[in-house]
Design brief:
Rossmann fold, about 300 residues, 11 strands, about 25% helix, Ribonucleotide Reductase Protein R1, domain 1
């Protein structure tokens, strides 16, 4: 591992106005770079290769700061083969609206997505089955896992092999526990659930890429409480809901936001139960706040 700094030309190229509260990260986890090695063993990055893809979100808000216009983009990682969206059946409770926000961010970044619902051993009444079936019907591979019983862990490992996979989810859903079950040698820190908020406590504080086997890498990200997809306009949001695809082009207006317009085929599909009302509610919630900032 070589500690590197950025060559001065990058700092000049990405120099932003003083009123900007955030800047896009210049080099991110997953980037391929060229660097020059210094005599002391450190390096200087002088080139960042073109990214095949990258996953991003709006940069988190600074408490107490005022904002004008859209916040800047924060790139989470680049050159990803798989995006695993991790949720939990319980502790913290499954939240479909959060999953749908992650899905929109993934779809807008054109990254292959798998949904993993962890802690399935806690779901003694099989309440999660209907959600698994819903997301499978939409077209997402959806896997039940338990780091306690080992259910689904082998399936997850098979999907990881020879790939670069990013694990993304809320705090406390068990990302590190899944890593440790698949690759015991990692010995990653595992957090507890706050009994006050039923939300996880952060155990991973920075995004890290770990080589777990030859040609197999996992990207561990901090659990997040805020997810606001970056750069999506209201008129385009429906394109990132895969279950809208069969209806979206039959709307009367090509600028339809699928909220109140007459002749909207998506609204008609919801009324006829071709599109889940829960997914449509998620869509409306994102639509109404797409220019704002949502914290959960």
């Amino acid at each position: 591992m070589i500690r590197c700094s950025l060559k001065g030309k990058f700092k000049k190229e990405f120099n932003l106005k003083k009123d900007k509260l955030y800047k896009t990260d210049i080099a991110v986890v997953g980037d391929f770079v060229n660097y020059e090695l210094n005599d002391d063993g450190t390096g200087v990055i002088d080139e960042i290769k073109k990214r095949e893809n990258y996953l991003s979100r709006k940069a988190p808000k600074i408490k107490g700061a005022s904002y004008r216009g859209e916040r800047l983009e924060q790139i989470v990682a680049s050159n990803i083969d798989n995006l695993f969206i991790i949720s939990s059946a319980l502790e913290p409770a499954f939240n479909n609206k959060v999953i749908d926000r992650f899905l929109v961010a993934g779809e807008s970044s054109h990254v292959p997505i798998t949904i993993i619902i962890n802690k399935i051993d806690l779901d003694r009444d099989n309440l999660i089955d209907s959600w698994v079936n819903l997301y499978k019907q939409i077209g997402y591979e959806t896997i039940r896992t338990s780091a306690v019983t080992g259910e689904g862990i082998g399936t997850v490992k098979d999907l990881l092999l020879n790939k670069k996979t990013l694990f993304w989810g809320q705090s406390g859903v068990g990302k590190s526990s899944i890593f440790n079950k698949i690759f015991p040698g990692l010995d990653l820190n595992v957090g507890e659930i706050s009994t006050y908020s039923d939300k996880g406590k952060h155990t991973t504080v920075t995004t890290n890429m770990i080589k777990v086997e030859e040609n197999t890498f996992v990207i561990d990200t901090p659990g997040i409480r805020e997810i606001a997809p970056y750069g999506i306009k209201k008129k385009d949001l429906g394109h990132y809901f895969l279950d809208f695809t069969d209806y979206i082009y039959d709307c009367r207006f090509n600028t339809c936001t699928h909220q109140h317009e007459p002749g909207c085929a998506v609204i008609g599909a919801v009324k006829n139960n071709y599109i889940s009302k829960y997914r449509y509610e998620s869509y409306l919630r994102i639509l109404e706040t797409i220019e704002e900032d949502i914290i959960f």
